[in-house]
Amino acid sequence: MIVSDSGPLIWLARYQLLGLLQKFFDKIIIPYSVYKEVVVVGIKKGYSDAYEVKDKIDDFIFVKKGKYDKRTIRKIEKSLGIALDKAEEDCICLAKELKTMFLTNDEEASIISNKIGVKTKGILYILLRAVKERIMKKDEALKIFEKMIENGFWINPETVLEFRGLMEKM
Fold first, then answer.
1. Exposed, middle or buried by CB within 10 Å (0-12, 13-18, 19+), for 74?
2. Is 13 exposed, middle or buried (0-12, 13-18, 19+ CB in 10 A)?
3. Is residue 3 within 8 Å of residue 103, measured between CB atoms?
């Protein structure tokens, strides 16, 4: 089980790779704020990835409604000069509550998560693991990664080099 933020769901759905999450984590839990961001708003805007995620709801992606105590997170945000969005804050709280990892592509959300004891993984971990477990070929994963960057996936240039280096070693 893992809690997921919007970004990984959107990017994996865009490339029909949501099944990797099911293989690796069995259940994906998302707060309602992520559902709203990905599915409700996505469908209104006509995004195909929104339909892809919607089709997996109650299959292996589950929505958990709830109110979360964000005081600790907000104190950390303030001390670091960071402002996360509602969905990211909800995800961190939910992952803490469920004592599980948090899947996010957001570096600031990862920093705050780690400060409160919530481990994080990102979409690059998913691609690396898919290659390591021979679910996906290395060249296929690299091709998807390059397409993501071409399509606006923002990533630190150092991380790009690190990811490519890790792929080459596999």
1. middle
2. buried
3. yes
What does the domain layout of the chain look like in residue ranges? 2-121, 136-169
- Is the overall model pTM greater than 0.85, yes or no? yes
* Burial zone of 8 (CB within 10 Å; 0-12 exposed, 13-18 middle, 19+ buried): buried
Over residues 145-165, the pLDDT tens digits come to 999 999 999 888 999 999 999
Backbone angles phi, psi at 41, to 5 degrees: -70, -40
Q: Tell the burial category of 128 from Cβ atoms under 10 Å away from its Cβ (0-12, 13-18, 19+).
A: buried
First-to-last alpha carbon distance for the chain, in angstroms, is 26
C-alpha angle with apex 139: 151 to 50, nearest 5 degrees?
35
Question: Residue 44 contacts by C-beta under 8 Å, 6 or more apart in sequence?
Answer: none
Report how far residue 39's alpha carbon sits from residue 45's, in angstroms, rounded to the nearest whole number. Answer: 10
Q: Dihedral of CA 108/1/32/144: which sign? A: positive
User: What CATH architecture is 2-121?
Assistant: 3-Layer(aba) Sandwich (3.40)
Rounded CA separation 122/97 (Å): 20
